């Protein structure tokens, strides 16, 4: 069954790869390249995207050899990469950047060019839980497919993808060296309106470009098949919609909140609302979603923002992305209000209101979407 799943996944990915390549060829034919230099640049871009689309067609390995800070350089030197870091450079260095829960990550730097790339590997388990906590390596293909779709519909809002290696379950992408997690900024009470607007644009462009009311029935069916992601959606089912509302070892809260937490878990009307929203998450097929758009999946330099970690991508209710994004601001707002930092609390609400308004404006402009 596992092998069959990988073959089916590869076949679906191949169909998507063809569609993506055709889109770029049509874009060129439509006259987007208006000068000789831009035609050359566009040709290189199309060639690179076609190569990536082909790489994503290959079945991913079920149990790749895990890279380490010691082995990643030897691995990287075997890759057919010349930009922005040349694999054959004698001045390569690598450092561990594995701060997330699921994957192994490294930064490879070219000291000669003063450039760097981000290398991400998906092992066949949840990194933070250990090798017994198995998780499909197909998630790296979902992330790569999502990256190409997001680059297509909302260029500049995600890191560029340079290489995909199905055998080793590795992606090589743009290193956001000057960026930091939005969550860290919000904790530090640094609130950027333009960064929030960037994410509103990301959501608005991706959701409208893939919305069931704006694509053909064939296109909608293609999105649903290519981004049918039961393993990662299952994690959301468990850790967002189920475990927080029961007694479980994965939950924690400060002692002073015992009574409030117990009250929430005993509130049957509230729990019924959670079940209703959970059903919408599981059944409503509306648009292509990032699927994990909290403040830890967004990086910012204080001016703009880029979305990372796309492995939870799926075709579902657009409001789920928006809800996670809003939640990322609600928590620091509550913290600021509790500390009496009224200026910060007001700034957060103002920025959030502006971003949501921008998002809804994009949806309403893309008729016939009902953006209620």
UniProtKB/TrEMBL annotation:
GO molecular function: ATP binding; kinase activity
Coiled coil feature spans: none
Residues in Aminoglycoside phosphotransferase domain copies: 110-338
Sequence intervals crossing the membrane: 6-25
Domain of life of the native organism: Eukaryota
Entries under SUPFAM superfamilies matching the protein: Protein kinase-like (PK-like)
Record's keyword terms, sorted: ATP-binding, Kinase, Membrane, Nucleotide-binding, Transferase, Transmembrane, Transmembrane helix
PANTHER family: METHYLTHIORIBOSE KINASE
The name this protein goes by in its record: Aminoglycoside phosphotransferase domain-containing protein
Source taxonomy: Eukaryota, Sar, Stramenopiles, Ochrophyta, Dictyochophyceae
């Amino acid at each position: 069954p596992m092998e069959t799943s990988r073959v089916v996944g590869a076949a679906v990915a191949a169909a998507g790869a063809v569609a993506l390549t055709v889109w770029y060829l049509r874009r060129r034919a439509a006259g987007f390249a208006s000068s000789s230099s831009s035609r050359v640049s566009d040709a290189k871009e199309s060639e690179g995207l076609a190569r990536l689309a082909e790489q994503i067609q290959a079945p991913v390995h079920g149990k790749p050899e895990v890279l380490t800070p010691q082995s990643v350089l030897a691995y990287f030197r075997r890759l057919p990469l010349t930009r922005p870091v040349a694999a054959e450079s004698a001045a390569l260095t690598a450092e561990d950047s594995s701060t997330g829960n699921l994957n192994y990550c490294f930064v490879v730097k070219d000291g000669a060019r003063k450039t760097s790339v981000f290398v991400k590997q998906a092992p066949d388990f949840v990194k933070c839980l250990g090798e017994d906590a198995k998780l499909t390596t197909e998630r790296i293909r979902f992330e790569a497919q999502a990256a190409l779709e997001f680059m297509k519909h909302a260029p500049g809002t995600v890191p560029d993808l340079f290489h995909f290696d199905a055998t080793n379950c590795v992606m090589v992408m743009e290193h956001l060296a000057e960026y930091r997690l939005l969550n860290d900024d919000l904790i530090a009470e640094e609130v950027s309106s333009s960064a929030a607007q960037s994410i509103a644009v990301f959501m608005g462009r991706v959701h409208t470009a893939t919305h069931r009311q704006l694509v053909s029935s064939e296109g909608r069916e293609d999105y649903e098949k290519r981004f049918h992601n039961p393993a990662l959606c299952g994690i959301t089912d468990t850790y967002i919609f189920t475990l927080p509302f029961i007694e479980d070892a994965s939950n924690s809260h400060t002692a002073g909140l015992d009574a409030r937490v117990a009250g929430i878990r005993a509130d049957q009307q509230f729990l019924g609302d959670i079940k209703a929203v959970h059903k919408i998450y599981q059944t409503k097929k509306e648009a292509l979603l990032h699927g994990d758009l909290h403040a830890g999946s967004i990086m910012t330099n204080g001016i703009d923002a880029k979305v990372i970690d796309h492995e939870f991508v799926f075709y579902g209710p657009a409001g789920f992305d928006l809800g996670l994004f809003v939640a990322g601001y609600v928590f620091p707002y509550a913290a600021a209000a509790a500390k009496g930092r009224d200026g910060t609390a007001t700034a957060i609400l103002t920025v959030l209101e502006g971003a949501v308004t921008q998002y809804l404006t994009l949806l309403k402009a893309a008729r016939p979407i009902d953006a209620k």
